[in-house]
Amino acid sequence: MKLYSFWRSLASFRVRIALKLKRRDFDVVSTDLLAGDQFKSDFNLINPQAMVPSLVLDDGSILYQSMALLEYLDEVYPDPPLMPQNAMARARVRALCMMAVADIHPLVVPRVRKYMTDKVGLDEAALNQWIENWTNLGLAAMEAHIEQNNPDGIYCEGDTVSLADLCLIPQVGAAQMFGFDVSHYPHLSRIFETCMSHPEFFDSRPQVQPDYPEELNGR
Ligand SMILES: N[C@@H](CCC(=O)N[C@@H](CS)C(=O)NCC(=O)O)C(=O)O
User: Can you tell me the distance from the alpha carbon of 103 to that of 122, in angstroms, rounded to the nearest whole number?
Assistant: First the structure.
């Protein structure tokens, strides 16, 4: 399999974790979103939305949209399962996934940031406030969800890793990279530490990707 990915891409981070948890071999094809690789004409076949991730299967089929990839991998490679058995628990997992994937992440992606600076006229400080606002609003809701539904669990839902953790961890990692204080989210901070103690999560983080910029090493 080939994963079109970018070191900083949170959606790619989710899929890297899933591929590792499912023990799949995959090659990373780096797509430099800052250099505009996603807008090259031949990339249209890989992802018509000009985004990463895309997953190219061994038979050449191409899949995109990170949630579709996560669910595909979980269905085709059921061990270890990343969705609970119980319908209520599955609904809770999906709610957490959507908070990250649909309600935080799309507001902070490069195309939106570019629009906010180039078309709306935000300066760097205002852009950071924009990112911090939507990130905090979403993380606070995820923290509240866990406090209400699963305050004593090890992971987002109970004591087993689920797709909710795969969606949460990149978002918390990004908040830290942006320099936001996540310590006021005790559940999220604890789940982040726990997940990062697993190699499948730790080795999927942006800082160890082959295309991570050398000049950022040590930061
Ligand atoms: N909903 C999509 C979002 C994908 C997405 O926005 N990816 C970002 C990187 S994390 C991207 O490729 N952005 C390109 C751009 O904004 O120009 C998914 O989950 O796969």
Answer: 21
